[in-house]
Amino acid sequence: MSVPALSINNLHKSFGPAHIIRGVTLDIEPGERHAIIGPNGAGKSTLFNLISGGYHPSSGSIKLRGEEIGGMKPFKINRKGLSRSFQVSNIFSNMTVRENVRCGVLYSMGYGYGFWRNVGNLHDVQRKTAEILESVDLLDKAQLPAALLPYADQRTLEIAITIAGGADVIMLDEPTAGMSHSETERAVALIKQATEGKTLLIVEHDMGVVFNMADRISVLVYGEIIATDKPMAIRGNEKVREAYLGDEADAIEGDAA
Amino acid sequence: METIVFSLLNGVIYGLLLFMLSSGLTLIFSMMGVLNFAHASFYMLGAYFAYTISEASSFWVALIFAPILVGLVGALVEKYGLRTVHVNGHVAELLFTFGLAYLIDEVVKIIWGRNAVDYKVPELLDFPLFELFGAQYPAYRIFTLFVALAMLAGLWFILNRTRAGLIIQAALSHPHMVGHLGHNVPRIFMTVFGVGCALAGLAGVIGGNYLVTDPAMGVQMGPIVFVVVVVGGLGSLMGAFLAAMILGLLQTFAVAIDARFADIFGWLGLDATSELGSITIASLAPMIPFLMLVLVLMIRPRGLLGDREL
Amino acid sequence: MSNIATDTMISLSPSGSQKFMQRTVPLIIFAVILAVIPVFGPSRTMYSLLNAMGVNIVFAMSYNMLLGRAGLLSFGHAVYFGLGGYAAVHAMGAIEAASYGDGGFWAGYPVFFLPFIGFAGGALAGAVIGWPSCRRAGTPFAMISLGVAELISAAGFMFGSIFGGEEGISGDRMNGPEMFGLSLGPINEVYWFIAFWTFIGVLGIYAFTRTPLGKMSEATRDNPERAEFVGYDPQKVRYLVFIFAGGFAGLAGGMSAVNYEIFTPEALSLAPSGMVLLMAYIGGIRYFAGPILGAILLTYMQSMMSDYSEAWLLYLGLLFIVIVMFAPGGLAGIFGGLFRGLRGDNPAASLRQWAVQITGIVLMMISLVTLIEMSVNWSNNYGEVFEPFGMHLPHDGVLTWAVIFIPFVAGVGILRKALKNKEGQA
């Protein structure tokens, strides 16, 4: 049996008296596209921050390809091949689009904290940057200041920076939040293509996106995973229906219909 | 014994003076996030205003009106200067007050001259209050003690017993919440800045004749005020009080100790004639606050009693 | 795909001629200016002013590696300037001792290359002090830099054998082997030394901005969180930048050591740290050349205006506050805006707007200068009176107050109107 790409075991996180993550256990296989859904306040963002190093776990373990990463600094986790995007665009807004992606590329290509090289002469970095920009269709906007990009393009740039380092576990936090219908479709196609062959962990509210993309879905409610299964099975799951009262339950059924 | 009692007394008074000076900055810093570089310049203004007013009328008039004047100057600075810079962030605000300190220092030099002015202790209090171990203790120092304690009591009363005080207390620990409560934030900021400056001004009125009133007094006190605020901790007046007392006592005792490094570390083979060995403890006194500042920021960035990191 | 990417790579990075125009040409112009200045036969005073400017240019540029490029506000940058300078002065002493004594390494070390020693000294100091200071940017960094500066400058007065007490430590630059035929005796030869190192300093700092570390320092300034999620430790980025900034400050210190042949503990204190902050900020921290402008202007003000008006620090403070409040881009930002306006669609209109604004500013300056100078003369009580252009302006003269009030009101009116017009257009 292969080692899971990401393996979370009995993970807990409390902030003072607030017990946000209450024993999450989850294995994600290499190459799997896994979505986490759940009502607001279920702890999805907290879980994301725990895995990517933003928070220290209170207890439990997080293993990346068998190696414990719980409580490591974000930059160490990133270097081990796990990269994440943010719910709100979190880009280097004083730089151009090209420079943004280049920042994502530099470390992974071994240039680290180098102070003896001219970035202008790093042809491998430039080639990689161009490839990434091409794969997310931002080539023609490469020279624009990132802050001037339209919202949807900023979200795309966010994804581009995330995949730029060549990590094989990619975590996307609501990548289509705030996008129009057509923008969402485009984003989904782009994510599928750009994360081809990689392990993908995604938090998303748009059920269309989730059921379209995910191989498996986990449902997080009040800090616990109440079900992990294939999309079809999740639709039929009684506990999930209970958790999703109202609109979102309709959304699930609607997609099922 | 003699040294200890006098140092204790002087240390407490110096500590209280430091607290008077820094309490305003703690208020300003905690609520507005502005580490006012010019805070000690307002302290200096307080001393100079008091000098001019007491020349014209009396010290007692100055005691009341000099802090009010300083507070007004502070409020104007906030309204016409700081507010403009606010949108550019805290670093811009810090830079603004840094320039302001330059400006106030220079204006003071032009108006009152470059040398110390003769700001005297009022005659009514210019007598030795009691004698200890054959040395006389000036009454004015004890008066300083009482003014500081009165201010402390007044501050405590306002913060804990009035509506405005409760709002300020809430704002100290949760500065972002004030706006949500439906208060006029710019006006609160202006008031807090003005009151903070007035407190520094009051410290100036008391400290100017206790110590000395010259154009360098702002520059000398400026960094020490920062130390008190940072060491005490963001949002904590109690912390500022504690830090001021510790600093006041430490510095006063260090000055009073008649010892060299060689006396203390002689067992390590340190020679009294060597450079390191001949350093006196007293000469280290001015370094103590900054040692505290650096250590606290490195080891405990939230300060002694602060509720959040800087 | 890689084919297309390789092709587009060329279009992505600036073309060779663009690079040449934007990067090489300004550096060549800078070098040419430095080289041509002696042709005009500057006076001794002019030379000493130019030399001071050279030192301050490198110092201010090194400061901007922190404030402008890495977003680190330091109140103690003179510590690294001073420690580098002291290292150079001591090395100068060693050269002197070695050349009259038994030789050895220092006997063969040219004074011309002392700025290397300064760089090493500054960088070493940065490496020792930097790590704990760089944990966080913003206010904590500013406060630690302040505390460290106070501690080091206090220590400077305490350890006489290293820092020479109040008198400082002096040296003699005319020992050891000569380089490029320069004895470094006469001041015009010192100019070549300063010009050389000013250029090296600026070139070095420019090259630094082009490295991966230089780029990531900007990224960390703008978004430390994101920098962490692309594999960089923000503290380490800041720390390394801090060491380099310390090194270049030390280089400037080494230049200063050779130029003045003396260093005193004053050089470590808060005053020069504040001055370099003013230079960089007034010049413009978001522009590479900004600190150069600031260093030139402030050095000029320091040496020329301090002779003319004792209130020059007041003028400096006013200038700084005006820049912080109304022109955060500094002088470079103002010139940049003017340049963009002239190249825009409507150069005439932008020129007119500029003329109006400058008129307003000049009017207000007339008023303020009169007020300040009149007050200075009055407060000095020597019976002197401010007499510009043959006018007699005592504190109790009607004309004086007219010269203060009328231009002030007119200036404020013009500026407010200009501001309204601007908003109307936008």
Automatic annotation (TrEMBL), chain A:
GO cellular-component term (any): plasma membrane
Keyword terms of this UniProt record: ATP-binding, Hydrolase, Nucleotide-binding, Transport
Enzyme class: hydrolase
GO function term, MF aspect, one: ATP hydrolysis activity
Enzyme Commission no: 3.6.3.17
One Pfam match: ABC_tran
Domain spans labelled ABC transporter: 6-247
PROSITE patterns per record: ABC_TRANSPORTER_2 (PS50893)
Alphabetical list of PANTHER family matching this protein: CONSERVED COMPONENT OF ABC TRANSPORTER FOR NATURAL AMINO ACIDS (PTHR45772:SF9), CONSERVED COMPONENT OF ABC TRANSPORTER FOR NATURAL AMINO ACIDS-RELATED (PTHR45772)
Name the UniProt record assigns to this protein: Arabinose import ATP-binding protein AraG
Origin species: Thalassovita gelatinovora (Thalassobius gelatinovorus)
From TrEMBL, chain B:
Keywords: Amino-acid transport, Cell membrane, Membrane, Transmembrane, Transmembrane helix, Transport
Recorded GO CC terms: plasma membrane
Gene Ontology MF terms in the entry: transmembrane transporter activity
Pfam families listed in its UniProt record: BPD_transp_2 (PF02653)
Transmembrane segments: 12-38, 58-77, 139-159, 188-212, 224-257, 277-299
Main localization of the protein described in the UniProt heading: membrane
Organism superkingdom: Bacteria
Mode of membrane association: Multi-pass membrane protein
GO biological process, one term: amino acid transport
Locations listed in the record: Cell membrane
PANTHER family: ABC TRANSPORTER ATP-BINDING PROTEIN, BRANCHED-CHAIN AMINO ACID TRANSPORT SYSTEM PERMEASE PROTEIN LIVH
Family: Belongs to the binding-protein-dependent transport system permease family. LivHM subfamily.
Protein name: LIV-I protein H
From TrEMBL, chain C:
InterPro entries: ABC_transp_permease, LivM-like
GO molecular function, one term: branched-chain amino acid transmembrane transporter activity
Pfam families: BPD_transp_2
GO cellular component: plasma membrane
Residue runs in coiled coils: none
Keywords: Cell membrane, Membrane, Transmembrane, Transmembrane helix
Transmembrane feature ranges: 20-40, 46-66, 78-100, 106-129, 141-164, 190-208, 239-258, 278-300, 312-334, 354-376, 397-415
Membrane topology qualifier: Multi-pass membrane protein
Annotated localization: Cell membrane
Protein name, entry field: Leucine/isoleucine/valine transporter permease subunit
